[in-house]
Amino acid sequence: MDFGRVITAMVTPFDSELQVDWSQARRLIDYLIEEQQSDSLVICGTTGESPTLTEEEKLGLFKLAVEQARGRCKIIAGTGSYDTAHTIHLTKEAEKIGVDGVLLVAPYYNRPSQDGIYEHFKAAAQATKLPVMLYNIPSRTGITVSASTTLKLAELPNVFASKEAHSDFDLISELTAKAPEHFKVYSGDDILTLPMLSVGAYGIVSVASHVIGKEMQQMVRSFVGGDVQKAVEWHARLRPVFNGLFNCPHRVPNPVPVKYALGLHGMHVGSVRLPLVPATEEEGRFIQALFQS
């Protein structure tokens, strides 16, 4: 169940009519594997604008990704939602398609108790043979998956990892100290990749790796290889991009900045669907400046 150290949460390319651009999705997958050295791809996560994708679009993207990757990297399908029954349904459909794993976000909006969170994830995990990555992102879901809940879920044989998108290092440290050997903790925030590695995390589920994936691989490999100083130097070099993609003027939400940045790198993936809106000229200039040495 090793999905690598640098996993890219892939954007969904749209055409001028904001329909899925299937041909550009194929090109983007090749680019992320060959140019940016992604070990795995998350398809239809939040960065892929999953809340505005239809089920038909999601299943089509899962199928396309499996076909296009051709085993060059692993494909993780974003199948989680606040509805346990639909999460199970979509996970089963993704398994039929042949994805390598699923990412299950904590139930958002309805804010279940820790018992409810556990039962939700357990039901979904037991409905599939696929490896399951949990996704804890309190700022978007309104709930925190506690360390004790995650550790209890880690006892299930196919729950192999957790993506932790927050800065509660006490929680992270408890997970890395007490989790079973097979269970891996991933940072879900680019700027926290190196700090989380330092307390035992395994890797990163990244947005910035769309455009600086090779460099992020170098940072992670330096740390894992014992050259901490080199890893710190990489972190310092990449920090402006990490911060800039999430701190544009007016707090532009992900994936607006990274879609714009991809265009600057020659990979045009279109705009975003409402309720997100495209970057303004001011925001575009800010993003462009991130890549000017």
Explain this structure to me?
With 293 residues, the protein is an alpha/beta fold. Helices cover 46% and strands 13% of the residues. It has 12 helices and 8 strands. Strands 1-2-3-4-5-6-7-8 form an 8-stranded parallel beta barrel, surrounded by 6 helices. Helix 2 packs parallel to helix 3, helix 3 (84-97) packs parallel to helix 4 (114-126) and helix 6 runs parallel beside helix 7. The radius of gyration is 18 Å and the shape is globular. The protein starts with 5 loop residues before the first strand and ends with a helix. The model has no long low-confidence stretch (mean pLDDT 97).
Output the radius of gyration.
18 Å
Question: How many β-strand runs?
Answer: 8
Helix/strand structural class:
alpha/beta
Q: Largest beta sheet: what is the strand line-up?
A: 1-2-3-4-5-6-7-8
H-E order: EHEHEHEHEHHEHEHEHHHH
Describe the main β-sheet briefly: 8 strands, parallel, barrel
How much beta, percentage-wise?
5-15%
The number of helical runs is 12
If you average the pLDDT, what whole number results? 97
Distance between the termini: 39 Å
Chart the SSEs and their pairings.
Blueprint: E1 6-9, H1 22-35, E2 40-43, H2 55-69, E3 74-78, H3 84-97, E4 101-105, H4 114-126, E5 132-136, H5 138-141, H6 147-153, E6 159-164, H7 169-178, E7 184-187, H8 193-198, E8 203-206, H9 209-224, H10 228-244, H11 256-264, H12 281-289
Parallel strand pairs: 1-2, 1-8, 2-3, 3-4, 4-5, 5-6, 6-7, 7-8
Helix pairs in contact: 1-2, 2-3, 3-4, 4-6, 6-7, 9-10, 11-12
